[in-house]
Amino acid sequence: MAEEIQKKSKSAFNFEQCLKCSICTVYCPVSAVEPDYPGPKQSGPDNERYRLKGMEFFNESLKMCLNCKRCEVACPQDVKVGDIIQAARIRYSTHTPGLRDRMLANTDIVGTLAHNFAPLTNFALKLAPVKAALHGVMGIDRHRTFPAYSFQTFEQWYRRHETEQRRFDRFITYFHGCYANYNYPQLAKDLVKIMNACGYGVRLLEKEKCCGVALIANGLSKQARRQGETNMASMRKAVVRGEPILTTSSTCTFTMRDEYKHLLGIDNDDVRDSLTLATRWLYRMIEDGKLRLAFRDDFRMKTAYHSACHMERLGWIPYSTGLMKMIPGLELVMLESQCCGIAGTYGFKKENYERSQKIGAGVFKQIEEVDPDCVSTDCETCKWQIEMSTGYDVKNPISIIAEALDVEKTRRLNA
Amino acid sequence: MKFDSIIIGGGLTGLTCALTLAKAGQRTALITAGQSTLHFHSGSVDLLGYDEQGQTVLHPLDAIRALSASHPYHKVDDVAARAEEAARLLADAGLLMDGTTDRNHFRLSPMGVSKPAWLTLNGLVRSAEEDSLPWRTVTFANIRGFLDIPTEFLVDNIRRKGTDVEVKSFTTPELEQARRSPSEMRATNVGKVLADETALRRMVEAIDGLEADGEVILLPAVLGVADARAESSLRQLVDRPIRFVVTMPPSMPGVRLQTCLRQAYQQLGGMYCASDAVTGGCFEAGRLRYVTTENMPDERFYADHFVLATGSFQSRGLMSNYRGVFEPVFGLDVDAADDRGAWTAEYVYDDQPYMRFGVRTDERLLVSRNGVRVDNLYASGSVLSGHNALKLADGSGVDMLTALQAAHNILKK
What we know:
The complex is a heterodimer. By secondary structure, chain A is an alpha/beta fold. Chain A has helices at 2-8, 23-26, 40-53, 70-74, 81-92, 99-105, 107-116, 118-126, 128-138, 154-166, 177-183, 185-197, 213-217, 221-240, 250-262, 269-272, 278-287, 309-314, 317-324, 353-370, 380-390, 397-404, 407-413, and strands spanning 171-175, 201-204, 245-247, 275-277, 301-305, 330-334, 374-376, 394-395. Chain A has a four-stranded parallel beta sheet with strand order 2-1-3-4, with helices on both faces. In chain A, strands 6-5-7-8 form a four-stranded parallel beta sheet. By secondary structure, chain B is an alpha/beta fold. Chain B folds into two domains: 2-99 and 256-412, FAD/NAD(P)-binding domain, CATH 3.50.50; 125-245, Rossmann fold, CATH 3.40.50. Helix content of chain B is 28%, strand content 23%. Chain B is built from eleven helices and 22 strands. In chain B, strand 17 (319-320) and strand 18 (325-326) form a beta hairpin. The longest helix of chain B has 18 residues, at 395-412.
C-alpha cells in the first residue's frame, strides 16, 4: 500500500483523492430528504480522517446510508465514497443486529421457511393483525407489501427438469439468487426459456448461497464472508468448465463482483470476469454474431426503464436497454435515473419507511406521467417498491425478452 | 459496441459535441468518468472577457481576431456563426439565457466581483457596466445558516459599486429542519429542500415578511435542478423584483446546465455512460479503432470518430508527474514546457504558464501521438493548449465553440 500511495497516489478506496468538491452530495438521495444524515462527503472521506484517529468519531448515523453508490457514480475523482461508509460501518459499528435485522438479512433461511408454508405465509403477511405485529414487535413497517413466496422454489422446479437441460451440448451456469428461487421462479424460468431457445442448457451452481448483500447491510459481514467463499468455490468449478455464470439480479451481481473484494476481502479475481448479468452476456453474444434472437411479430409493449442504483454503478444499463431495443414491437422510455428508495431491506424497516418513500417520490411521479404498460428494471427490490408505490407491473428485461421471443424461430436460427 | 462517434468527457464540451452529433442523426456514445466541472459553473457563458493585455473586452468578436496565433478560437472556422449556434443549443435544451455577441455584459460572482460574460441564465444578476449595478439600493435576503455565500465580501463589493445594500435573512420550517445538519446548508441541498410547492410558498411568505427596502431583492441561486420553474414562480409570487446571486460551488445554475444538456442528449437517444473511465484505445494505420473502459474491460467501443473532451488538470484530462505533463488516456502529444521550473510563475495570481498547457492539435482539431496525426481523434475544450482561460475569461466559449467545430469537422467528412 505504501508504494501505491507514494508512486501512484492510490490509497484505500481512493480516499486521498477527495477534493472536497461536494458533487457527491448533489446526488445523494438520503441527504435530500433526511436532515440528520450528514451527507456522503461528511460521512465518507471527511469523517474518515477522524475515524482513523479513533473509533469514538464513528457515528451510527451512517446506517442511514442506502449504499446506493450514486455518490461513487458522481465522483469525478473516482473516490469510493460509498465503500468508505460501508467499510466504516463494518469496522466500527458496535450495534448488534436484532431479530428483525437477522430475519431481513437471512433472505435464504427465511425464504426456505416461508415457501414451505407459502399459502399460509402469503395469506398471513397480508393480514392487518400480522402486519401490526410485524410493525410493533419486529419493526417492519406496516405499509410494506411483502413479496409473495412461491410454493415451489425454482430449485425444486429445476430438479424436475434437470434431465432436459442436460441434453444440450453447450451450457451456461445460472446464479438465480434468493428472489428468483423463493419469490418469483418465473424469472428464472424465463431465462431457461431464452437459453434453451438459443441452444444452451442451464446448469445451477453446485452450492448456491445468498450473495450476502442484505447481511452486509445489516451488520452481519462475517456470515456474508462465509457465504461468499462458498459461492466463489462453486463458481470456480463453472469457470473451469469454461461456462459463463449468468445472473438476473443487478444487486447480487454487483455484490459478488465488487463488494466481495472491496468490503469482505474475498479474492474473486479468477471468477469476476465470468460472472455477468444475462442481459449483458446475450447482448455481447448477439453483437459478436454468435447468437441470434427472433421476436414475435404480434408483440407490442410500452415500457419505462428504471435505472437501478447498482446497475448505474456497474455501468451496464446500455446492455439491458440495448437488448430490449432489439425487440421491434417495444417502445422503451428511459426514466430519469434516480433511487427508488427501497435499497434492499432498508425500506422494510419501520424507522426508514417514510424516508424510503420520500426518496422514491420522484421516480413514482415520472412513471405515472409516462403511463407505460409496465416498468422494467434489473433489480428485484426496486420491483417491489415500484409495484407497491405506483401499482404498475414491473418486469425484469429478461422476462420481457422471454415474452417477446419467437421460440421456434430463435431455435432454428441458433441450430 | 459500434457507434458513429464516441465522445470522451461529459462536461460542457462533451455534452455540446454529443448533442450536436446526435441532433445530426449520428449514433453517439458519451463516456464520462463521473460528474464534471459544470457543477462549479457560474451560470454565465463567456466568449472573451479580457484581452491578452488584461483589459476588459466589451466587443468579444472584434477582440477575438486580435488573439495570438496559438489560441484555439483560430481553429473555429466562423466564430460568430458558431457562437449563434451555441446560444441556440442552450435555448433548445431549455436554458433561457440573456446576452448577445455584440457586447459583453457583467455577471456578479458570489464574492460580489463583476466579470465580463456573453450569456447569463435569465434571473441571475447582470449589469451593462463593470463598475456599477443597475440599482441604487438592493436588499440581500440570505437564507439563515446558508454556507455558500460569503456575505461580507458580497456586500462590501456591491457597496463599492455605489449601490446601497440592506442585509436581511429569512428561514422557513423546511429550512430550519435542514439546518439540523449545519454542514449540509449548501446550495444544491437547500434547493432540494425547497423543491415542493408548500416549501416554495412558505419561502415567498418569509421573503414578503422581510419588508425589504431595496429596489430589488437579491437571493442566493438555490432553486431548480432541472428547470427555472421554481425561480419563475417565486418571481411572480413575491411582491418585489427578484434577482439571483450565483453561489459557491456546487452551484445550482451549473447543475442545471449539466442536467438540461444531458437530458436533451439522452432524449435524442444518445448513449450516456455516467461513470466509466476510458482506459485506452487501439490505434491502427493512423486511426483510433476502438476504446476500452474500466467498467466494461472486455468490451470494445468502436467508432468512426472520437472526440477527447476530458478537460484540464482539475478534471484529470491532463496530468503531471516528475517526468512531465501528459495526457493520461492515450498518451497524446502535448504542448508543455519540459523544464519543470517553467511550469509555474511565482505568485498564484500571476499568468501561470501551465494554464496554457494542453493537447496539441492541428487546424482541424485532430490530435497527434508520437508525432503522427490521428485521423479520427479530435480534441476540444479545456484539454486544448494555447490559452489561459482564467486570464482571458474565455473558458466556456472555447469549450462550446471548439466542441461545435469538432462536431462540424466530423459531419463534413
